[in-house]
Design goal:
Helix 1 crosses helix 7 and helix 2 runs antiparallel to helix 4. About 50% of the residues are buried. The chain has 15 helices and 22 strands. The N and C termini lie far apart (about 65 Å). With about 475 residues, the chain is of the alpha/beta class. The protein folds into 2 domains: about 270 residues, Aldehyde Dehydrogenase, Chain A, domain 1 (3-Layer(aba) Sandwich); about 190 residues, Aldehyde Dehydrogenase, Chain A, domain 2. Bound molecules: nicotinamide-adenine-dinucleotide (NAD). The site of nicotinamide-adenine-dinucleotide has 32 residues, from helix 7 and helix 8.
């Protein structure tokens, strides 16, 4: 049982202003796995005041001091990597191989990338007689979701620290454990008091307190479109900068070539990873009509081969995060059936033999791009396959979405892949997969307006100041 009842404010672990706790549920067992305190606006006030006080000195700290601290953080992160992985499995149900693997790798990779970027980042540039300075924006409110809990915190907290900002983090109530351990790691690094603060609790209470706060200069939010819209409205009266990293309904175009069957199979299994709860998951797969039979056979086989079960064991897929998420996914599967979409794998209910825990069957439909399940973000292991006539048609379908977070193209002809990649209206396109910590991550359209990762993530936290006649001619 984990009981994380204190908040991290001004360099110390402190009690909430008003004691109130909530249970944290293990999604694989439905049992209580621990408790957190639920903060109030008064806790946010304390955390923001600490961050404001610390900003005076941290904003003018040297790059060397910041690098030393970030490197100490990385050493401590590596030392506690196993604890982070176990916490992620317990809080949101990622299989141990994924929790200890990619989840932990991502958090540490972002920290290492921030160190590398900071080593060469130019905070000042002289152009002619004008000096351009990139200055820390101030006190930042960081609000994160549960789906890649460590990654989402890492892509906000580390660049904020590196750029000289101070921050208050509000982690997801459903998955609060990895953030707690990360706060302990940050504390152990010797970061000055108040530079980083963390308050746990509900989004409607703490999120609103942060977004409406007079003394918060910017909000970085990752989560759903609907809450992103609410945050933008709440932040408007104080004219804060708001970075939004929202949902997606990304499309992967499978080209018509000898690799089609492998590409369909690989991308079907890939989409089910993390139980489909990945904002950038390619949840629409576009295949040539002429190869639809091959695609159906390959996707059905791949989905049926995904092993689902106890995430502490050797499985490919654990549960989804909560009862609410399970119910929402079931409703989408039912909607697909009701609308006449062709179910080719999975379907309603839990996988056979799993009577407890929020387990969903790896599910695949064949449908058209106007169906509900092709247009809305399901955020579960539900893939839709859509046929296309030719490449122009594939691009048209891929771009016919309110979202534009990510996408992909899979095929043997690199030139053809490049052509499709350039035509897709989304922020991150993978040609036959690929991964790069220095690539910008963020969306077009209703997938948001921010860009995180690498040096792009630094600019989220920086103001631009011009000083003219700095070097008189
Ligand atoms: P969510 O929007 O429900 O919650 C995200 C965070 O916002 C949580 O910490 C929550 O407590 C908080 N929150 C809730 N109400 C709030 C309010 N009124 N004001 C301020 N904060 C509030 O999202 P979720 O269910 O935790 O995460 C899933 C969503 O996140 C999906 O839509 C997914 O696509 C998206 N996501 C996007 C990215 C990206 O980088 N673009 C990455 C991961 C997840």
């Amino acid at each position: 049982m984990r009981d994380y009842l204190k908040f991290y404010i001004d360099g110390a672990w402190v009690d909430p202003v008003t004691p109130k706790t909530a249970e944290v549920i293990n999604p694989a067992t439905e049992a209580v796995s621990g408790h957190i305190s639920l903060g109030s606006a008064a806790d946010i006030d304390k955390a923001v005041a600490a961050a404001r006080k610390a900003f005076a000195s941290w904003s003018v700290s040297s790059v060397k001091d910041r690098l030393d601290i970030l490197k100490a953080m990385k050493a401590e992160y590596d030392r506690r990597a196993g604890e982070l992985g176990a916490a992620i499995t317990e809080e949101m149900g990622a299989p141990a191989s994924l929790g200890n693997g990619f989840h932990v790798f991502l958090g540490g990779g972002h920290l290492q990338t921030v160190i590398e970027v900071l080593e060469t980042f130019r905070f000042e540039e002289l152009r002619g007689s004008t000096l351009t300075r990139h200055e820390p924006i101030g006190v930042c409110g960081l609000i994160t979701p549960w789906n890649w809990p460590l990654n989402q915190v890492a892509v906000k907290v580390f660049p904020a620290i590196a750029t000289g900002c101070t921050s208050v983090l509000k982690p997801p109530q459903l998955a609060p454990y990895s953030a707690q351990i990360l706060a302990e790691i940050i504390h152990a690094s010797g970061l000055p008091a108040g530079v980083f603060n963390m308050v746990q609790g509900s989004g409607s209470v703490l999120g609103t307190a942060l977004t409406t706060h007079d003394d918060v200069d910017m909000i970085s939010f990752t989560g759903s479109e609907s809450i992103g819209v609410q945050i933008a409205k709440d932040a408007a009266p104080t004219v804060k900068r708001v970075g939004l990293e929202l949902g997606g309904k990304s499309a992967i175009v499978i080209l018509d070539d000898a690799a089609l069957i492998d590409n369909v199979a690989g991308n079907t299994a890939g989409m089910m990873s993390n139980s489909g709860q990945t904002c950038s998951a390619n949840s629409r797969m576009l295949v040539p009509f002429s190869r639809m039979d091959d695609a159906i056979a390959a996707a059905t086989k791949a989905a049926n081969e995904v092993t689902v079960g106890d995430p502490t064991g050797n499985v490919a897929m654990g549960p989804v995060v909560s009862k609410g998420q399970y119910n929402s996914i079931q409703e989408y599967i039912q909607k697909g059936i009701d609308e006449g979409d062709q179910l080719i794998a999975g379907g309603l209910g839990r996988p056979e033999g799993l009577d407890k825990g929020w387990f969903v069957k790896p599910t695949v439909f064949v449908t058209t791009n106007d169906s509900t399940i092709a247009r809305e973000e399901i955020f579960g292991p539900v893939l839709v396959i859509i046929g296309y006539n030719d490449i122009d048609h594939a691009v048209e379908i891929a771009n016919d979405s309110n979202f534009g977070l990510a996408g992909g193209v899979a095929g043997l002809d690199q030139e053809a892949c490049r052509d499709v990649a350039k035509r897709l209206r989304a922020g991150l396109i993978g040609i036959n997969g690929g991964f790069d910590f220095h690539a910008a991550f963020g969306g077009y359209k209703r997938s948001g307006n921010g860009r995180e990762w690498g040096k792009f993530g630094f600019h989220e936290y920086l103001e631009i100041k011009s000083i003219t006649n700095y070097e008189p001619a």
